[in-house]
Structure formats: C-alpha cells, structure tokens
C-alpha cells in the first residue's frame, strides 16, 4: 500500500464540508489518521458513530499535536476565535488550510494567530448543499467541482502542492487566485444569488394569508428553486455577507441598475429588449451545462 498524502489530518469543525472531506479522505486513503476538533459533544459523537474520524473532542492540545494538515471548516465569522484557540498548539511544519466562502476576511482573521513555523494555504471548494452538520456530508461532494486556493506571496510551494494533491485526489479541479479576486467572483456567482433567494422568499412570507398559501401550493412555477437556496445555514450566510461587504455591495448596485432597466422595458413594452436579454441569459445556462457545472 502506498504512503498516504498526510499522516494526520485534523478537521476543525465537523460540519457539511469537513465531514465530506473526512469521508473523501478515507475513501481515497489520503491520511493515516483523521481527527476532529469540535466544541459540540454531539457533533463529535456523531462523527465517531459514523466512523468518519478516528478521534474527536474539544481539546486542541490533544487533537492538534500530531496534525500535519489542519483544515478549518467553521463559519467565516469564527476564524479569529479559531485562530486563537489553535495557534499555540500547531505542530511546526504543519499546513493550515480552510474552506471558508470568503478569503480576504479569513486571511485577515486567521493568519495573525498562526506561528511562523506553519504554512497557510487558504481555500474554498465551490461545492455544497443547503444542508449542515456531520450527517449531511458525502464523499462525492467535490467530484468534478472547482476548488479555489488563495495562497499569499511567499507561501512554500511544497505546501500549496500538498493541498492541491488533496483536492485533486477528492475529484476537484484547482484554480489559484488572489483573495480579493476570489471575493469579487464569489460575490456574483454565489453571494448575490443567495441574497436574491433570501429576499424573494422573505417577500413571499410577508404576503397576507391567502396569497401565502398559494405561494406554497403553486411553488413549482419557480419559487421552489429559490426556497432551496434560501434554506441554507443562517449563521454561515450571516457571516459571508458581513465579511464580504465591499464586493457584495458593489454587485448589488450593478444588479439594481440592471433590474431597473428590465423594469423599464416591461413598463414601456420593449419586447425586443426583453427577448434579447433572455436569449443572452439562456446562453449562459448552456455554457454552464457544457462546462459540466450544472
Ligand atoms: N455549505 C456550503 O455549501 C459551503 C460552505 N463553505 C464554507 O465552509 C465552512 C463550513 O460550512 P459548512 O460545513 O456548510 O457548515 P456546517 O454548519 O455544516 O458546520 C459548521 C461547523 O463549524 C462549527 N462552528 C460553528 N460556529 C463555530 C464557532 N463560533 N467556533 C468554532 N466552531 C464553530 C460547527 O460546530 P458545531 O458542531 O458546534 O455546530 C460545525 O462543526 C463555512 O466557512 C462555509 O462558508 C464552503 C463551500 C460551500
Ligand atoms: O461557499 C459558497 O459561497 C457557496 C456555497 C456553495 C458553493 N459555494
């Protein structure tokens, strides 16, 4: 049997993403040992019961002592507190990475707490579901999906290479980006769509009684697809919007202008404007299907 990529992987927070990493790493034999550091006794018990980790608990001194890769999978608003908790216990030479949905804020909040003896390779798998917790994960989650890494200049290429190998072994393709660029791209591809879904579903829930019943009854006409996105974890999304403020506000501004243009076209009966716009958007959908990202 070949030597695994890592001796010990420690997953900080055993939610949807990190429990999927645990399953995929097990399936592909990427670590000799997988452990999790999580404050919730129930989450630790679940992870052990599922057999996706070899050890679980809330003591960083115990769980980080042997860790060669530490993968932080908590909401992005918790990164400073996580950094404070793990920083003093990291093994010299360890790689610290994360899966947070924003990158500038993670670098700002986590990096200052890491000792110079460790390598920091921030990351973000562009894969997920609206479900949370250790039971929601599955080994195939990252298959055929992109994972964006945002290492800072001067990061040890060997550390970047090992994180790249981890994600490619789990089925992902890798793109390297600067953190600021990542946050702008994700503001349009992920954060704005989630905000729109939260808005539409909020608008529907504010409707008066009868109309609200009909929204549920006839939801298959489009609304239903938004409710799936709007069912995503409230803490995770609170933290994303608070920590990608600039890029999200910028994209909301552009979106509002475009919405106003469509509103105007409807008001003035500009059939051609509407048809041209809808033809262009349909082409984007086709491009996503062609890129196998549907
Ligand atoms: N869900 C998705 O589609 C995607 C999510 N991400 C990112 O991955 C990260 C994890 O998301 P996901 O796995 O979905 O989340 P989950 O809600 O499934 O899991 C979150 C984990 O973080 C722990 N946690 C929550 N708050 C804190 C805190 N204050 N301090 C320490 N630990 C905490 C939870 O612990 P406990 O067991 O105590 O609840 C849990 O283990 C987030 O940063 C998210 O932005 C990235 C790509 C996709
Ligand atoms: O992390 C995000 O921003 C989203 C959720 C699913 C994939 N990306």
Rg, Å, rounded:
21 Å
CATH topology-level fold name of the largest domain: Rossmann fold
Number of distinct beta strands: 9
Q: What is the CATH first-level class name of the largest domain?
A: Alpha Beta
H/E element sequence: EHEHEHEHEHEEEHEHHHHHH
Q: Could you please describe the fold and organization of this structure?
A:
This protein is an alpha/beta fold and 294 residues long. Helices cover 52% and strands 13% of the residues. The chain folds into two domains: 6-177, NAD(P)-binding Rossmann-like Domain (Rossmann fold, 3-Layer(aba) Sandwich), CATH 3.40.50; 181-291, 6-phosphogluconate dehydrogenase C-terminal fold. The chain has twelve helices and nine strands. The strands form two sheets. Strands 3-2-1-4-5-6 form a six-stranded parallel sheet. A three-stranded mixed sheet has the order 7-8-9, with helices on one face. The radius of gyration is 21 Å and the shape is elongated. The model has no long low-confidence stretch (mean pLDDT 97). NADPH dihydro-nicotinamide-adenine-dinucleotide phosphate is lined by residues 13-18, 38-40, 43, 73-76, 78, 81-82, 99-101, 124-125, 128-129, 132-133, 233, 236, 240. One of its GO terms (molecular function) is NAD+ binding.
